[in-house]
Design a protein that fits this description.
The chain is of the alpha/beta class. The protein has 12 helices and 13 strands. It has helices at residues 2-13, 45-48, 55-60, 92-97, 116-125, 139-147, 192-201, 208-224, 242-255, 279-298, 369-381, 385-391; strands at 24-25, 33-39, 49-50, 76-77, 83-84, 101-108, 156-157, 159-161, 259-264, 305-311, 331-336, 344-345, 367-368. The strands form 3 sheets. Strands 2, 6, 8, 9, 10, 11, 12 and 13 form an 8-stranded mixed beta sheet that branches. Strand 4 (76-77) and strand 5 (83-84) form a beta hairpin. The two termini are 36 Å apart. Residues 1-28 and 220-230 have low confidence and may be disordered.
């Protein structure tokens, strides 16, 4: 109880409304910090990490493909096979060029439900497919518990979720605080019925017009953000204003927390996805600026920080009839950090042709997320095979030598 009281006092001093959490012993690399960013909605990885060597990509996306490097609105060249969305020229590209950003294509889970909710749950739990799910045990909570096995007297690590409610990935035996630092997608303080009641209260008063105008403005803003209010986002953060939120997260992780989680919504782009410009480009740009701001705000601690960006699945390789993309399978993970071996596209890969797509429509999964993260945690924290197996039961770590 003493540790909990100490944490609550510290949180109160920062004016954070969170739940208490116990303090845990740190990993072997005591300065290590880890942030997991979950893009809820299944983002289109083929617009982020563009398969510029694939002619089939350009054949199947006549309206939404990112052009080849050197063309107007073309991808930023990374390797002979891959390019980066041009909207990230000033945010993520410099990190890649400094060796602080790597990409893992053909990544994901073998879950084939194609359901946002089922696949998000499956990934956050990190448990073997086919068995009974334990919704009280997420893989990041198990990681924190594993790090707590370190010898007494070691430095202490504190986890946190930058979310409105505690996500599955951090539920478990270890109590974890959560706090929402930005506006959630689809979250509003007053519904339509309440707005009408409030307007009626001010009828016949000098405030009637300003109140009515205020609610009209609110409704207009809500309409412009409709794409970010989809159920798939599960009240995750919007990319709107994400840079400010990311910098606040960095200040907290720099000074107090060593393991964090945040989710960002608005990635379910069935209609009007866009290409070098448009809806998806806008979100990628905002996200990129936010993550670059996080890196900048971490200061010297960025050298010992690792950020991993995941999504529940990718999207169809072909565009649909609405110039968007539908639910897919494999995706691309991002790994960022001041001390990683970046500037690379890593993991098992293959050519993208009509014959290599999964079920004739999607990126295949060649790099299982539990193996990728298990290998990363083994390197970051010095975990042995038995420890990794307690975090990801039944999985074998894949060492991509990223740290």
């Amino acid at each position: 109880m003493l540790c909990r009281r100490h944490l609550l006092q510290a949180l109160a001093a920062s004016a954070l409304g969170v739940h208490g959490a116990g303090l845990l012993a740190a990993p072997r690399q005591q300065e290590a910090r880890f942030l997991l960013v979950f893009l809820r909605g299944g983002y289109d990885c083929a617009s982020l990490l563009v398969p510029t060597a694939s002619s089939y990509y350009y054949e199947t996306r006549p309206n939404i493909a990112i052009a080849r490097p050197g063309q107007d609105g073309g991808a930023l060249p990374l390797t002979a096979d891959w390019g980066l969305h041009p909207v990230l020229a000033d945010s993520l590209l410099p990190l890649y060029q400094k060796g602080q950003l790597a990409f893992v294509p053909f990544a994901g889970t073998d879950d084939l439900s194609r359901s946002h909710f089922d696949t998000q749950d499956s990934m956050e739990l990190g448990q073997p497919l086919g068995g009974r799910r334990d919704y009280r045990s997420g893989f990041l909570n198990r990681l924190v518990a594993e790090l707590g096995r370190a010898e007494a007297g070691a430095a202490q690590v504190q986890p946190i979720a930058f979310t409105s409610t505690l996500p599955l990935v951090l539920r478990g035996a270890v109590e974890v605080p959560n706090t929402l630092l930005g506006a959630a997608a689809g979250r509003g303080g007053v519904d339509a019925r309440q707005a009408r009641l409030i307007e009626s209260m001010y009828q016949g008063t000098p405030l009637a017009a300003p109140v009515a105008e205020g609610f009209a403005t609110r409704e207009e803003v809500a309409r412009t953000m409709q794409g970010e209010m989809e159920a798939a986002s599960r009240n995750a953060l919007s990319t709107k204003g994400f840079e400010g939120t990311a910098r606040r997260m960095a200040r907290l992780m720099q000074s107090r927390y060593q393991l964090g989680f945040v989710d960002v919504g608005g990635w379910d782009t069935h209609v009007g996805q866009g290409a070098a410009t448009g809806a998806l480009a806008n979100r990628l740009g905002e996200l990129g600026r936010g993550l670059a701001g996080f890196a900048d705000e971490m200061g010297p601690a960025w050298k010992s920080t690792v950020v991993v960006v995941v999504s529940e699945f990718g999207r169809t390789f072909r565009e649909n009839g609405n110039r968007g993309t539908d639910h897919g399978h494999g995706t691309v993970f991002w790994v960022m950090g001041g001390g990683i071996a970046g500037g690379r596209v890593v993991g098992e890969q293959q050519a993208l042709t009509a014959s290599t797509l999964f079920q004739n429509r999607d990126y295949p999964v060649l790099n299982d997320y539990r193996s990728v993260l298990g290998g990363l945690f083994a390197r970051m924290y010095g975990l042995n095979a038995a420890a990794v197996a307690r975090v990801f039961p039944g999985a074998k770590a894949a060492d991509l030598r990223l740290v």
